[in-house]
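Progress against Task 2.4 (sequence-to-structure conversion) is shown through the following example record, which the project officer requested during the mid-term review.
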Amino acid sequence: MLVMVLVLGATMLGASVIAGYITVQELRTAGDITHSAQAIYAADSGMGWELYKTFVGDNGLSYPTFSNGATVSTTEETAEDYSSVTLKSFGNAGRVHRALGFFLGTSSQ
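Structure tokens generated for the chain above:
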């Protein structure tokens, strides 16, 4: 009888822990959707910033800043023969990271 109660109690405790863990993961995913949108828009803004710098000029521009706490970083990679340029923009918000890339180059056809 005592063994049966212990087994039932352990089973119920295990099921409760698993259900709680799944609930926490679902809530975390729901919160990350907002951060995902913030990160992708930050990356998009950074890409626009890099394109502006590439076609118009630097003119002392600084990185875009966001009131929601998102951040952006960009890179520009030029081929050794200057035939192509690859622009990359990385947006971050919370624990979410999103990236966009843009290739400017000549066709080899």
